[in-house]
């Protein structure tokens, strides 16, 4: 179309850029609200989450590491905020376009739907229902857009009909129900308020319904049996009770969370099954009833993430309840050569664990309980793996639904495909908790305290030094076994001023943490934790 034609299409009153943005945002809101509600009703994933998931799984490892480095455990929130920001920007743009070229805006809406569908496809989700919310979202968006455009004040249909120069698209889809199409600003405001209320209600319902729809298989209704031979209570003296020192048992709500899932999978324990197959003589499948009827065992195990930086807090300790993984594998009959246990979670994440580590007698568990309660959803309800001595990414599959015996040479798990080490035993590590980094303490008698861990080997000694002076042996608290961290404490006498404290541990094999600092990638950080603080 020529410039001349454009100029001859008068901009109707009220059809400002601001109105266009409002129309666009309301359209996006209607689409998202409808998507959330449909997803909840169809018990499937919201397309917004699905797009985020697809971005996580298909982004280059370097980008993911950067995101984790920049945003830490808030990386998911930032990603979701990013997805929403893109939707808002695209919606605003579509809205502005819709004022002049409604068909182009409707086409844009369909393209967005197609992009959502593509994301679902890339997610390799075998849930066919996942496409339904996308279809409903596009339909709701289109309906909202149509309604909003119709209600706009001064819809120039009379003029358009009469003026040959008007672009035919403008208002072409707009029927003329009333005598006066330009009902004024009021009509638009009312329609906008209606669309907003409807999408808000739909969105809120969609968020709220899943918790209501949860049935008898919910975490709340699962009661765990006791262990066959319950462990004695933790020995007195595991906890030195120093203010600021990590408690020996990490409360569930404070336990670090690391996974690739954007929304916490909420599994139904009555629907859950675990399939054990691959290079085994007797593949089988068990459900929760059967798992809970087998002799369960308790174990105190400290879980650690390979991404934990020196001094980091991606480590936590608790008492787990579960069925020994070794017994599970014996029941299946592992064939020779099957050196890898490839486990898969309900959301498709995979993990490769050396078979020998699970079979060598350590307390590797298919865990169902954590600190006396069913696993919290974010820690893998209803069942997860826990293998002492291995970083979480090669051992601790949450929401586990499949265990396949295979060879490392044949199959690669999620993080192994992304340059992280295939085998990753936990490195001997120690941390200063007290004083807090850059904290202030009273001069004179100063308490230093922290934790150290070397799961399966145990900690033999912890040494600290202040202001690069002599190494001083710290006192160790008690431990229930070799697989947990140990608290340590040391006293020193300090003048007012800035000070540093540094710690290193020696494990049960006599190995002392090296000073050399190595990054977490590919198989865990090394180096001594050093803090600075002020005595005053
Ligand atoms: N399904 C699933 N399980 C997973 C992961 C994951 O991304 N998905 N991450 C692993 C990693 S890297 C770690 S460190 C531990 C953390 O367990 P937590 O979140 O219960 O502390 O879970 C492991 N299990
Ligand atoms: Mo991890």
TrEMBL record:
It comes from the Bacteria. Keywords: Membrane, Transmembrane, Transmembrane helix. It holds the Pfam family Oxidored_molyb. Residues 262-414 form the Oxidoreductase molybdopterin-binding domain. InterPro entries: Ig_E-set (IPR014756), OxRdtase_Mopterin-bd_dom (IPR000572), OxRdtase_Mopterin-bd_sf (IPR036374). The chain crosses the membrane at residues 21-42, 77-97, 104-122, 128-149, 188-209. Coiled coil: none annotated. Residues 154-183 are annotated as: Disordered. The keyword Hydrolase does not apply. This is Molybdopterin-dependent oxidoreductase.
